[in-house]
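Ticket #4471: complex job returned nothing on first submit. Input attached below:
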Amino acid sequence: MATKILIPTPLRGYTGNQEEVEATGSTVGELLANLAAEHTELRKHLYGEDGSLRNFVNIYVNDDDIRYLEKEQTPVTDSDTVSIIPSVAGGSRR
Amino acid sequence: MGRAALTLRPAAASAIRRHGREAYPHECCGALIGRDGLVTMALALPNTTDEGPRRRFLVSPNDYRAAERHAAGMGARLLGFYHSHPDAPARPSPYDLEHAWPAFSYLIIGVPGGDPGQMTSWRLRDDRSAFDEEQLVEADPDDEVLV
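Support reply: We reran it on our side without changes. The output follows.
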């Protein structure tokens, strides 16, 4: 079973410039782990040093943010579309 | 992914300066849209931070998606984002570094005292350890090849 994942512009350099890739997994967490195993350079941009998703990495299943579903335990099927969507943040002082 | 410089079309440079002035003393932010290192449009976006807009900016996921769709609709792509540093140098902060994405240009405009000042542009190193400054060029308005 493979689920479609939409890759945002800044990460396409790590997926062979593909906007869409497929990965397997029954939950969002499994899916992203398999994606990062396939495209290893993605890992440091998706996950922090503690192994959790960076807080400016947003994962949507279809149109829903997984923070309001079951987070990384959110189930996925091959009919779902998972999107990685950046928040872009910064500022002048720490 | 190497690129010699980021070039701003005059209208894009003017839009960034205007946005920086209008938002002062808050930070402004927006998307840089174009292709092949030439920014043809600076798309102003809302600063949705809840951490104090005088020193922070945040582009929400929905606004990010809208910017990506806008670029695709123009037959262009997202080249990066701009934001202002009111009363602070046009250099990336540690907070900028922690939150940066690869491959994007991060244009910063200093706005000392409310007047748009220096603009610089930066790209995240692949290992996330630092930014490298890239050359920022404003296209000559008379240069029809570029603009």
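The two ends of chain A are 44 Å apart (CA to CA). Closing as resolved unless it happens again.
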